[in-house]
Description:
Helix content is 68%, strand content 4%. By secondary structure, the chain is mostly helical.
Amino acid sequence: MGNFFASRYQKEGPGVSKDAPQKKRFFVFFDVYTRKFGKIILVGLLYLLCCIPVVTFGPATCGLALVLRNFAREEHAFVWHDFFVGFKMNWKQGLTLGIINLLAFFMVGFALWYYYDQMAANSFFVVLFAICLLCLLLVLFMTFYIYTLTVTFDLPIKKLLKNSAIFALLGIRANLITTLCCLFLIVLAVLLFITFPALTILIPIFILPTMFFIIAFNTYPQIKKFLIDPYMTEHPQNENDTQETVFSDELLIESAPKQKEVKE
């Protein structure tokens, strides 16, 4: 079993002094984004090609999450190989989670449409509409985390859903920043579609992959901060242990990490 804290495919470089000052996350983002730009575009296009609504949405998102998680923690990844490793390793859970995820968005979206349509007749529906908006944010924030948790930890679906809900609330600041960045890119895509239809091709090639990377880059540090760092502080001797910690409503519980290889 591979070491969870080190990518299976990690090229050695010149290294960085442990006394070197830490870069601000804002600058780290652009550093990683520019260095991995071609691979981010490639994995985004690969995801769009492999993402069939309902059928492969979940497994394909797991493959995307695996590659972008490695980029977010500044590790090497082979885009094609690692994408399909994530897809194949997590296809059962990914399929179920994908259906649950899409169903949740559909139900909340339908409720929003219905309550909005009824607000003119009864002001009580304004309250219900506001509650549904909060539910929509919760589902969206959970989506930011659930696939990264799936490719990282070996947990049943119930605990994956519970943990993603906790991170949706725990990382509220990062989640709101991520949402605002995604909204900006969505508005940019709409404006591009309206004003320069010929450049619409940039949406799947550039805008969507950038959005995917922003989500991974902003959410993975929350998992590291509340799971990995506290565990390594308390158990420095277990850096190469096959057990990792998983966040739950009972604080920390141990669980085996995902295998790094797929058996043929």
